[in-house]
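Sanity check

After download, print the first record. It should look like this:
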Amino acid sequence: MTRSVPTKPAVAGKPEYRVEALAKGLRILSLFTEQRPTWRVSDIAPAVGMPLPTVYRVVMTLTAEGYLDHLPNGDYRPAVRVLTLGGAALRSLDLVTAATPRLQRLATETGETVNLAVLTGDKVLYLVRLRNSDLVTANIQVGSTLPAVHTSIGKLLLSFLSPADLTEQVTDASFTLNHGPNAKLSLDELHGELTKIRNDGWAMQDEELAYGLRSVAAPVYGRDGSVVAGANLAVQSRDWSSQRIVRELKPVVAEACRDISALLGYTG
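Expected structure tokens:
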């Protein structure tokens, strides 16, 4: 005869399989808003109604997992990994909705990989990726991030930052150990190129991100005239010399970006 095992009744208003620790982490992450982008542990505890030791443990876990950054002044702010959670949601953004059909046409016309990305801190976050099957960076997808200093879109977007913002966002840690043979290794090395990129209005990556990979990027402007994103064409260096990229690919990616900018309301 089998004995039935009594089950613990669910708390009213809560699902039976609720994971309380996860719920606490999500409640803490939801505190961070545009109006208040940073919080101290001592302020989080009363805001979410949790004991201070509990909040401390949750915050330490979120930081260790890459979802929060601990600032020098003791505050915490959302880290880049939080943004990657919204990969599916990114597709519904006005920018992605407006850009995708034009980028698909660019990919079809060139037969090469097309990317759309925005700057977040010292990284670029990929919003659209239409990949050619033989490209070397197969592990990049929507929601992926890469060091801005080693990518054509990243350098392009960095070039439009103010000197103060550039110095704040790009540190020695921004120059990773995993890079291509031609990568710049410090902001001092990169400064001259960023000035040229801003003046020219386009950027190239020549085996800086990875061996065998080149790309060329152009800016996407918003209604107010600010640069809101960048799009690029990424190609194999064995097939495309730098000179050929400038001659054949730079004009078409720039044209696509102008079309997308117009869709976003830019009239410049």
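If your output differs, re-run the checksum step. Summary of this record's structure: The two ends are 81 Å apart (CA to CA).
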